Amino acid sequence: MDYTKELDKLRQQIDKIDEQILYLLNERAKLAREVGEVKKKYDLPIYVPSREQKIFERLEKINKRIGEIFPTEFIKPVFREIISACRSTEENLKVAYLGPRATFTHQASIEHFGQAVEHIPVQTIKDVFEEIVKEKADYGVVPVENTIEGIVNYTLDLLVDYPLKITGEVILEISLHLMGINPNKNEIVRVYSHRHALAECRDWLMKNLPDAQLIEVESTAKAAEMAKDDYESAAVASEAAADIYGLHIIERKIDRHTHNYTRFLIIGKDIPPPSGNDKTTFVFSLKNEVGALYKTLEPLYKHGINMTKIESRPSKKEAWDYIFFTDIEGHISEEKVKNALNELQKKSPFFKILGSYPKAH
Ligand SMILES: O=C(O)C(=O)C[C@]1(C(=O)O)C=C[C@@H](O)C=C1
Fold first, then answer.
1. pLDDT in tens, 291-315
2. Which residues does the annotation list for site: Essential for prephenate dehydratase activity (predicted)?
3. CATH number for the domain harbouring residue 322
């Protein structure tokens, strides 16, 4: 059967459409560049996450209406890269993240900003904050909580201490794999990984590699790097790390929980404008009196604001003194949010807005 003619005809049509898409991409980049000129004239920020979010939502809606032959779940990844590339014609954004390359934080950064920014790996969460303060980076990406291991306390502490704001969030599903240069599991003597990742995979490791030595290193990506030259070593890390360091995946998804998610925060200098689907994060302390928590939170109830999370941490200023990290629905520019937080602030010895930003998609 001669199928070449049939295929050629269809492929010619695809080529034509690709060309049209390419012309349109160039038209789009030209317009984005013009937007960039206007923004520079009026000293406005180049990166506007609320606008990007609205673009994704609008296109997903249209795609569903027109029959979604192109799967809707890929609208965001495709347009994220289109927008990222268009944005890069306006300005070269610099984004610091907790490195090295191929960590889950790196993945979160790519998921949020796309490929067309300068991703800068740094060694510690504090370095991410420092890079922004020293104006070596425009934004930063740090982990804040994991569904299994809980809160990354250090990130919360730094948010209190630094004059920076949360400008966005990313939630990633984490899949941990066993990888190495030796595909034979029985010859593995050492397993490297981050403390959290080893904890998440403990059940599988105990059962399948009971004699292997488990060695903690600073990141899953570092673990993959350590395993890349040693036949007797393996690492527990991400698929991206296996790709970068050229390792075989010996066993997929060895974390015991199928729902393993990590939330990352995007940090920057300013609060982004509202997207219509935002949350506000703030931190406050209490007076030492009966019913203090109830009384302090009362303005939220009074103004009809939904509190979605509250988390206490030692204030580190005095023994048994606590501060409360709180998430509410809405953007700080909304009248009712502003009024409620003004009232709440008056009742708290310590109060700080940590950010108002679009909720993770
Ligand atoms: O609309 C803007 O403000 C733009 O700069 C254009 C654009 C885009 O490519 O659509 C690029 C960057 C912004 O973060 C938002 C959107």
1. 899 999 999 999 999 999 999 998 8
2. 262
3. 3.30.70.260
- pTM recorded for the entire structure: 0.88
61 and 107, same domain (yes or no): no
Q: Is residue 122 part of a domain?
A: yes
- Ligand 1 centroid–CA 31 distance in Å is 9
Q: Is residue 12 part of a domain?
A: yes
How far is it, in rounded angstroms, from Cα 194 to Cα 255?
A: 13
Select from 83, 93, 266, 275 the residue to mutate for testing ligand 1; criterion: most ligand atoms less than 8 Å from CB: 83
Pocket flag, ligand 1, residue 32 (CB < 6 Å): yes
pLDDT tens readout for residues 3-36? 999 999 999 999 999 999 999 999 999 999 999 9
Which atom of ligand 1 is nearest the CA belonging to 83?
9
- What is the phi-psi region of residue 328: left when phi exceeds 0, alpha when psi lies from -120 to 50, beta otherwise? beta
127: domain range?
92-173+261-267
Residues 83 and 96 in one domain: no
Q: Are 181 and 245 in a shared domain?
A: yes
141 and 207, same structural domain?
no
* Whole-complex ipTM: 0.98
Answer yes or no: is the C-beta of 177 below 6 A from any ligand 1 atom: no
Measured by CA distance, the residue closest to atom 2 of ligand 1 is 35
What tokens appear for 335 in the block?
């009248």
| Ligand 1 atom 12 nearest Cα | 87
Residue nearest to atom 10 of ligand 1 (CA): 83
